[in-house]
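Replying to the earlier thread about multi-chain prediction with a worked example.

Input:
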Amino acid sequence: MTRVLLDPTSERSPVRRERLPRLDSLDGKTVGLLDISKPRGDIFLNRLQLELEKRGARVERFRKPTFTKPAPVDLRHEIATRCDAVIEALAD
Amino acid sequence: MTSLPPLPEGLVAFVKRDCPTCLLVEPVLLQLAKQAPLTVFSQDDPEFPDGVDSVDDSSLEKSWHHQIDTVPTLLRVKDGVEVERRLGWHREEWQATSGIDGLGPGLPDWRPGCGSLSVDPNLTSELAVRFGASTLRSRRVELAEAEDEMEAMFDRGWSDGLPLVAPTEARVLAMLEATTRSADETVAVVPPDLVDCTVEKIAINAVMAGCKPEYLPVVIAALEAACTDEFNMHGLLATTMPAGPVIIVNGPIRRRIGMNSGNNVFGQGNRANSTIGRALQLVIRNVGGGRPGEVDRAAHGNPGKLSFCFAEDEEGSPWEPLSVTLGKDAGVDTVTLFPGEGPRCIVDQISRDPDSLARSFAVNLRTLHHPKLALAFDCMLAIGPEHSRIFRQAGWSKQRLLDRLGELLQIPGSELVRGADGIAEGLPAGVKGATLPKFLPGGLLLVHCGGGAGLFSAMIGGWVRGSLGSQPVIREIRP
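Result:
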C-alpha cells in the first residue's frame, strides 16, 4: 500500500532575486551604515565611516531599534532607496 | 468526495454480528428475506445473519456513504432513492416500512440499536481518508515502496534529531478533531520566514512530535503566544544565547491531559510535557524555517530546546498560580511562554525560616548569567514543595517573598563595574556610585512545581528582557 504523508513545511518556494552588481568604485556613491544597536557598534561604524569618506563615498547612518528583531520594513526601504550599498555591523 | 454508491431496490438492512439487537432480529431478517426483496449489508461478518445471503460491507463503504450511524438500520429504497429509515428494532415501524405483519413474534416490541462501525471513533479518520472526504490542503508526500518511513522524514529535514511519528492523513484528521477551529484558520505568522501558519500545519507537526489530539489546543495557544511581537520568537531563535521557549501550563487542562507538575517536572517521562514543547519547536523549524546553524545561532543551546514544557503544581502551592499573577482568572486554562535557558538547582537543606531561605534564593539569583550583570535579564524561580512549605508555615505571601528578594538583590555598583574583582566583564564605570537591582520590577516570576521530597528549587534564566528582547506572554487555551 502506498504511504502518503502530509508535508509539515510551509511549502514556500522563495523568489530568488539577482544581487545588484558590485560597485566599481566608492567615489561619489552613498554607503549606508546600519547599526544594529549592539553595544559598541558605533565605535566600529565611526571608524568605517572615516575610511569610506577617505575613499570618496558619502555615508548615511541608520540604526535598528533593537538587535533582537529584524529591521523594520520602512527602515529597509529607506536604506534601499537612499543608498548604493549598505554595511550592516554586528558588535559586542 | 467519491460519488454515492447506489442502493438496491426494496428493503435494505445494515447489521453487525457484534450487536445484541442485530442478533435479536436475525429471525426477523429471515422472515423479511422470504417475503420481500431484501438486501442485508453486514459490517463485521459476511456470514451474518445465518440463512440470509448478506453482502459483505466490512470495508464500510456503503455504511459510510449512506451515513449509517446505528445498527440495525432498515431502509426502504424506491427508484434508487431512500424513502424510509428505521433505527434499531421497533416492530410497528419495521412492519410499516416492509408492509409485512407479524414480524418477530415473541420478540420485545422495541430495542435500541448499537453504534455502526462506520462511526466508530477509532475508524472515522481512516474512513474519511479512504472515501475521499478529507479537505486537508497540505501537499501529499508519497513514499517509495523501498523507502524507510523514519529515514524519509529525516532525509527531508523535518526532524529535530529524534524520530518522528509519520504524519499520515488519518492521524492529522484525528488530531484536528480535538479543536473546534477550522483546519484552514491562520493562527500565527511564524518566524523567521514569517509564514502564515494554519491549524492544519500545526496539527501535522503535533502528530510528528507525538502529541495526543487533546494536546492540540495547548500547542496552538503556545504558538500564538510565541509569535507575538512581545515574545519575539525571531530574536529568541536567532540569539547566540542558549535560551528557548519555555511553556508553563495553568488551569484544569493540566490534569485533563495528564501533565506533570511533580516529580522530575522538567525531566523526561511525561508524554504531554515532552511533546507539546516539541510540537511548538517543530512548527518553528518546519513552518517558520528556523533551524540550528541557520537563523538559530545559539552558541550552546540547551536540551530544553527539544521541549521545555511543564505544568504548575497549583494544588500544592501556598500561592496563587502564575496565570493569576499575570492577570488571568483562576481556573482559566492558559499557557505562559517564558524565554528561558535550562533549569539550575538551588540547594538549601538547612533553612527552616523564610528569611534564611529567601537569602539562599537571592545569592543564587545574583549569579544569573553573571554575578556582575544586572537589569538585563529576567528569571523564573521554580519553588519546590519542600521549600514552599517553609513560606506557607510562616505565612509569607508571594508578594512578600518577591519584595524580600527585591531588597536582597540590591547590588552596590562598585561590585558590578568592569574590572571589579579583577574581572573585566561588568557594567560601565558610571554605575559605580549607584545601587542597582539585579532584576527590574516584574522581572522575577515565581512558579510552584517539583516532587514532594527534596529541599530544592530551581532557577530558569531568561534572555534579553523587555521590549528590546522578550517578555513573558500568556494566552488562554481555547478548545
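The CA atoms of residues 27 and 59 of chain A lie 11 Å apart.

Feel free to reuse this layout for your own posts.
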